[in-house]
Amino acid sequence: MGYEAKAREILKSMTLSEKIGQMNLGLINKENLNDMLEAFKQGKYGAYLTYEDFSDQRDIHNKIMEASRKSRTGIPVLYGKDVIHGHFTVFPIGLGIAASFNPELIEKSFALIAEEASSEGIFWTFAPMLDIARDPRWGRIAEGFGEDTYLTSRMAEAAVWGLQGRNPADLGKQEKILACPKHFIGYGAVEGGRDANTVEISQHTLMNVYFPPFLAAMKAGAGSIMSGYHDLNGEPVSASYNILTHMIKELGGLDGFIVSDSGTTSQLVKYRYSTDEKQATEIAANTGIDMDMCSFCFEKYLEKLVEEGKVPIERIDDAVLRILKVKLRLNLWNREVEPLKDKNKFTLSSEAKNISVEAARQASALLMNKESSLPLSKDIKKIYVAGPYAKARREYFGCWCLDGVDHVVEPVIDILKRKLDNTEIRHLDYFLSERILGKDDYIDTVVYFAGEDPDRSGERNNIANLRLPEGQEEQIISLSNRGKKVILVVVAGRPLSLVRVIPHVSAILYVFHPGTGGPEAIAQILTGEAEPGGRLPVTVPVSEGQIPIYYNPIQVRSDRPEHLKYNDITDKPLYCFGYGLTYTDFKVSDIKVDRNEIKKNESVRVTVNIENVGDRSGEAVVQCYINDCVSSLLRPCKELKGFKRITLGKGESKIVEFTLGEEELGFFDHKGDFIVEPGSFRVFVGLDCENTIDTYFTVLDE
Ligand code: BGC
Hints:
single chain; binds beta-D-glucopyranose; Immunoglobulin-like; alpha/beta; about 700 residues; 3 domains; 5-stranded parallel beta sheet
C-alpha cells in the first residue's frame, strides 16, 4: 500500500481531537516534561521541539517516542530541532556555505548533519533557510545563502537532498531527516533590516526573486515548509490564503505540510488581524497552516471551530493527511531513538573533519592581497597574532548553533604555531599592547583576527552601522600607524563595510562564520597549504546608505547614468557579488555559443576557455550570467544562471561549458505563468559578476 492509501486508512480511524493533536507542535522543557509525557500518551501533539539541555536525562526522546506510540492511534510524534548548519560537527553558516558555490559540498555537509542529528532522535530540522537577503543590517542574512536567486536555488535543492536523500524513499532511512525550508516568503526583505518587520514586494519580484529557491526545494522533495513571522503586502504571511495555499501548495506542489513559525497564530491578535486567539486560529487553519508551532491556539480552539462549522473538516483532514504521509515517508513507526550522546566524549571522525575543513576553506574569500602578502612567507621570523578571534573556539560556529561541540576546535593561533614552526608566533594581548609593542618593535607583521560575535547576527540581531564591532578598527589602525604590516582576517555573520581599515591593511581574508573546520582552514590558507576557496554570495557595500545594494537591479539606464549616482558617496560596491581572489591568476577567453538561434524549448551551449596564467595551481569559480535584452516585464541587468568550480594546474587551460534552456531563460509573468520570450539574450561569463566577457544569441518566435 502506498503512503497516501496508508495515511487515509489511519485518518479514518481517528477522532477529531486526535486529528487536531497531529496539528500541534509543542515545546518541552524540564518544567513541563511530566505533563507533556502524559499529553504525548494522549496523542495531543504531532510534533515537538526543545531548546533545553537534557544531558542529564539521556533517554528522554525515546521515552517521548514510546509515550506517543502507546497513544490510542499509536502515531509516533516527530521531534524537530533547529539544527541549522551543524549538530555536533558545525559547518559554515548559510552565507559561508553559499560562498563555496558548490552544491556537492553542501549536499555532503547536510548529509552529515542529518546523520548526527538523527542519531539523537531528531528526525526533522528547521532548515535550510532560503530567504534571499539584500540588506546586511538584518542579522538573519547570516543564515541564508545570500542575495542571488539562482545560487540560493541550487544550494536549496542540494541541502534538501543532503538531509532527506535524493529519492523520496530515502527519507525512511535511519540516517535521513526531514527538511523544512523557511521562512516563506520574502522574510529577507524586512524594512530597515529590522527582523520580523513589514515587507513590501511587488508580485513580479516575489515570483522571480523570492519564490524560485522554495520551488527548487519543493521539487527536490522537501516535505515541510515553514512560514515566516512577517507581514507581506498587507497580510501576515502565516495567515494568507494566497501565500500558504496558493503559492506553496498549488503552485509549489508541496508534498508535505506547512508549519507556522513559532507563535505566529496567536501573534495575529497583536497584528490586529484578528480580534482574539479563536478567530486567529480560524484564519490560520483556513488559510493553510497545517501545524501550529508553539502558539497553543490549535489545541485550544480548533475542535470548537470545527464543531461550529467555521473550519471545515475537509481542511483538517487535508492537514492531517499531509502530516501522516510525511511521517510514513519518514518511517517513524520503526525508527530507533537512541539516547542522547555524551558530548564530552565526542570526537571528530576523519570524514567529518575533512568535510568541515573543506567547507570552511570554501567559505573564506580573499578580498585583498597587496604585493602577494599572502600566503605568509616562510622567511618571516616573527609574527604577532592579535584580535578577538585568535584564540576563539565556539565563536567560529556563528549564530543558531545549539549543540556544536567546541572542544574539537583548536584555536587558530595554536595551529599557526604548529604549521609555521620556524617562525616565532606571539600573541598580542591588546590590553598590554602599549607595553608589548614598545618592547618588540622589531616584529613587523601582525595577523589580526577580527570579527563579529555570533550574537551580533542571527535572529533579532540587527545593526545599523556595518562596521567591525567597537574597538577593532582602532586596534587595526593603531597597528598600522606603528608601521606594522597588517594581515586582516574577518570572521563575521554578514558583509561588513571595511572602508575605514582598508588603507591600513595589506590583505583581507573574509570568512563567514565557518564552523568546526574554520581555524584549520584559515591556517591552511594563511600558510599557503590551501587556496582561499570562497566567492562572495552577497555584495559588500561601501556604506549603509547604499542599501539595498545587489549586483543585479533592473535599472541600468545608460541614457541617464547621472541620475543613479549619489552626490556624496560612490554608487559602486566595495566588493561585488561572485568576487574572490586566488593565489594564482586566470584568464577567461573565447566565449562561444553553439548556435546563434534557438527555439523556445531548446537550449544553447555556451563555452569559454579558462587558463591558469599564474604560477601555481588553483581553483576558478567560473560564473555564467544572462540578460534578457528586451522583455515584456523588465528583467534584471544580469542574472546568474550557471557556475562551475574547476581546478587548473599552472599553465593549464580547459573549456568550460554551460547549458541555457527554458528554465534559465524564462520568468514568471503577471499571470503567474512561466514564460520564455523571443528575442536577443546576452550571455556573460567571468570570474565575478563584473569582470566578464560576453556574446549574444536569439530565441526565435515560434
Ligand atoms: C525562528 C525559526 C526557528 C523557530 C524554532 C523561530 O523563532 O524564526 O527560524 O526555526 O523559532 O526554533
